[in-house]
Design a protein that fits this description.
Chain A is α/β, with parallel strands linked by helices. Chain A is built from eight helices and ten strands. In chain A, 34% of the residues lie in helices and 24% in strands. Chain A has a six-stranded mixed sheet, with helices on both faces. In chain B, helix 2 packs antiparallel against helix 9 and helix 2 runs antiparallel to helix 12. The model of chain B has no long low-confidence stretch (mean pLDDT 87). In chain B, the strands form two sheets. In chain B, strands 1, 3, 4, 5, 6, 7, 8, 9, 11 and 12 form a ten-stranded mixed sheet that branches. The chains are: A alpha/beta, B alpha+beta.
């Protein structure tokens, strides 16, 4: 049985089909990227998988339980117990220190344990920044705190929404390396991104367009690391296209 | 770490590390608590303050003889039944007919200090008659007989035997030195005033008094209680209230207390509105944080508990500040309005803190309820 299975998922807002008959499976321990341009349905899909929204139709089986049928209260419990969330804009509580932000996830899950929270920060290389407030941390450091917070309760899935969207290349690499480490430890990762270089680091990439899965690519030469060309620039070794490339392609098709 | 420890760590961190934001909320609560505590202090202190003011208008209790006569000892016995901190003064009076310049006048023997205390509105030109051989002359008499301060006044008393026709007994005559002219605007201006002992010497009769005036700093009900107690305990004395004074005092006090109570309720309502507005602003400002907390697993009850904890802690701090500032506020009001200071009421501190916590908690309920309606998926996307 797959850890996560989406069966014939629709999300409809009036006339708009944000998700249109989406089917997808994620196995335990797998690292999957969900890629697509703006408005392709990535965020809607992330909200549904992250138990923050429900589909209009279809089944979402998480560990065999259809979370589409669960109440809002149960969804909160499932999210707390099974999912670790990482956001593009970090979203740390600005008046709590790094370690307190990590402990916050423990507080809602079970019992806060400062020692364990410090160990989690150590895993992301921030042991010496534990007592700093978010405003005293760089963007990359804040995102690493988010990673520590996401993994502190040993979730079934770590769900990251554009985790490198607000980071420079150096910090992007650090975060991707952390994902690689988590993957090697057996954590299931779902990374939503519009960046093909980040998407192809995963084992498999699911490409969404207009609310539909248009492509699934088993990434060649999976290393869990970002590929660089000889000049040190990120490159993709698969035929994944960036948002700009997709738009250019659509423009060319319209002109034909 | 226990959950409770983390809970307090979070809510104190929210207050301490968001000082500028929370200072505004704290200020609004503290101002409300200050006015509340100040007004309640004044509410309870008004009877004492007004009582003291009313004591300027004269005695509010009178002792008369239950049967034929009563003595100074009876007066002292009755006065001893009144709490010493409430008894402003006691003035026993004995009246006799005497003659000056061959004309009949009424002379009163009294305790001058007691008369000063029970009748503070009496205006004496010159000095009160404080020693034996001194006399205070009513302004009416002084004008009729052209008497001046410093002059000697011969007062003659005809004993009862002479009055009844026994010619062998002579008048008692004593010379008194006029120390002051009494100006009251009332019938007191037509009397002479000497000490009780001088009157006893003049008349040769000791012990009896005709009436005693008492000034007591107490509310109407308490005064009635004292009057009943004295009348039943001291058989020779009939104690009764001066209705003219006590009734008007009660009316004014009731109206003043009602006014203070009304203002207190209005202030309480305004404080609640102010706190509710501030908390609404706090919740709106922290929608993303609420969304994040919900996203990482906070239940609605957790969110309510955290925000309620914060607002109640703010309420407590505001209450502490309000207790101190409220006393200072009441003190200033008392000094400027009643020209006297007030005493600190320790019992008001926990009451102010408790009311402040409850009012802040209640005012925050609506904004906190709206906090639980935050959709994490929307706010975390920045919508």
């Amino acid at each position: 049985m797959s850890l996560l299975e989406l069966k014939n998922i629709y999300k409809i807002y009036g006339e708009l089909h944000a998700l249109d008959n989406v089917n997808m499976k994620v196995e335990k321990g797998e690292w999957v990227s969900i890629m697509g341009p703006s408005g392709s349905g990535k965020s809607t899909m992330m909200n549904i998988i992250g138990c923050m929204d429900k589909p209009s139709k279809g089944e979402v089986l998480l560990d065999g339980v259809d979370i589409a049928k669960e109440s809002a209260k149960n969804l909160t419990t499932i999210r707390r117990d099974k999912i670790g969330l990482i956001f593009q804009q970090f979203h740390l509580v600005n008046y709590l220190t790094a370690v307190e932000n990590v402990m916050l996830a423990q507080y809602y899950h079970s019992l806060p344990d400062e020692k364990e929270a410090l160990e989690a920060l150590d895993r992301v290389g921030l042991a010496d920044r534990a007592k700093h407030l978010p405003s005293q941390l760089s963007g990359g450091e804040q995102q690493r705190v988010c990673v520590a917070r996401a993994l502190i309760n040993y979730p079934e899935i770590i769900l990251a929404d554009e985790p490198t969207g607000n980071l420079d290349e150096a910090n992007e690499e650090i975060v991707v390396d952390l994902f690689h480490k988590l993957h090697n430890e057996g954590t299931t990762l779902i990374v939503v991104t519009h960046d093909p270089e980040v998407a192809e680091v995963a084992q498999r990439t699911v490409v969404l367009r207009n609310g539909r899965v248009v492509k699934e690519v088993q990434n060649k030469n999976f290393t869990g690391k970002i590929h660089f060309d000889e000049e040190g620039t990120h490159v993709t070794k698969n035929d994944l296209k960036s948002e700009e490339e997709i738009q250019a392609e659509e423009h060319a098709n319209e002109n034909k | 770490m226990k959950k409770r420890q983390m809970y307090f760590r979070m809510i104190t961190a929210s207050l301490m590390r968001r000082r500028s934001r929370m200072l505004v909320a704290l200020l609004s609560i503290a101002i409300g608590a200050t006015v509340l505590s100040g007004l309640v202090t004044i509410y309870y202190d008004v009877p004492r303050q007004m009582g003291a003011q009313f004591r300027n208008y004269g005695a509010n209790m009178i002792f008369t003889a239950a049967d034929d006569a009563f003595t100074l000892e009876d007066v002292q016995q009755g006065a001893a039944l009144i709490a010493s901190d409430k008894l402003v003064g006691v003035a026993p009076y004995r009246y006799e007919n005497v003659r000056i310049h061959e004309s009949p006048v009424v002379i009163a023997g009294t305790d001058m200090k007691g008369a000063q205390a029970t009748s503070p509105y009496w205006h004496v030109e010159g000095e009160w008659a404080s020693a034996s051989g001194q006399i205070l002359v009513g302004a009416g008499i002084a004008e009729s007989f052209n008497l001046k301060i410093g002059e000697t006044l011969e007062v003659s008393y005809t004993p009862a035997e002479v009055a009844s026709g026994d010619e062998t007994v002579l008048d008692n005559i004593i010379d008194f030195k006029i120390t002051g002219i009494l100006d009251t605007g009332g019938s007191e201006e037509d009397y002479l005033y000497i000490s009780l002992s001088d009157l006893e010497e003049l008349t040769g009769e000791k012990g009896t008094v005709d009436v005693a005036e008492l000034s007591i700093s107490a509310a109407s009900d308490e005064l009635s209680g004292y009057a009943d107690k004295i009348s039943s305990s001291v058989s020779a004395v009939n104690a009764r209230l001066v209705k003219r004074v006590t009734a008007s005092e009660t009316t004014v006090l009731t109206k003043l207390q009602a006014l203070v109570l009304l203002v207190t309720i209005v202030v309480l309502a305004l404080t609640m509105i102010c706190v509710a507005t501030t908390m609404t602003a706090v919740v709106t400002e922290r929608r993303k944080e609420i969304g994040l907390r919900k996203a990482i697993g906070a239940s609605d009850s957790s969110i309510v508990k955290e925000f309620l904890g914060e607002s109640m802690l703010l309420g407590g701090l505001g209450g502490v500040l309000g207790s101190v500032l409220g006393f200072l506020f009441a003190q200033q009001v008392s000094i400027h309005v009643f020209s006297s200071s007030i005493s600190f009421m320790p019992a008001l501190v926990p009451v102010t803190i408790l009311v402040s916590v409850l009012v802040t908690g209640l005012s925050s309920l609506m904004p906190i309820r709206s906090a639980t309606e935050v959709d994490p998926a929307l706010v975390l996307k920045g919508e």
